[in-house]
Amino acid sequence: MRQSVLRRRLQDLQGRITALRAEIVILDEQIAVADDEVSDLRVRALISETPLAEKEHAEASRHANLAHRARDHAFVSLHALESERDRLIEQLVVEV
User: Fold this and answer.
1) Alpha-carbon distances, residue 29 vs 24, 34, 36, 64 (angstroms)
2) End-to-end distance of the chain based on CA atoms, in angstroms?
3) pLDDT 10s digit of each residue in the chain, 96 long?
4) What is the pTM of this model?
């Protein structure tokens, strides 16, 4: 593959990696808030023992689980992009 094409692909990959890392930071912040809310609602549900409190706790737990899954997916995607970037760098070094 030509060096110019490799360099463009590397730049594209690096941009996607940077964006994904920023997304992971945001997800981490959202998860921290969601986990705190789940904890608070769990205590509230235990104390009040009402169906509404249980429902709020369950809903918050689902939301937190979705955020955790999104972060896990982002980490898998990040690893794949970094692997592809490393492969392209090796290919570029071999051609030089």
Assistant:
1) 9, 9, 11, 11
2) 11
3) 688 889 999 999 999 999 999 999 999 999 999 999 999 999 999 999 999 999 999 999 999 999 999 999 999 999 999 999 999 999 988 876
4) 0.83
The four Cα atoms 29, 34, 40, 42 give a dihedral, to 10 degrees, of -150
Give the phi and the psi of residue 55 in degrees, each rounded to 5: -65, -45
Q: 84: closest CA among 22, 20, 5, 10?
A: 10
Report d(CA 47, CA 50) in Å as an integer. 9
Which residue ranges form the domains of the chain, and what is each CATH number? 3-95 (1.10.287)
- CB neighbour list of residue 84: distance below 8 Å, 6 or more residues apart: 13
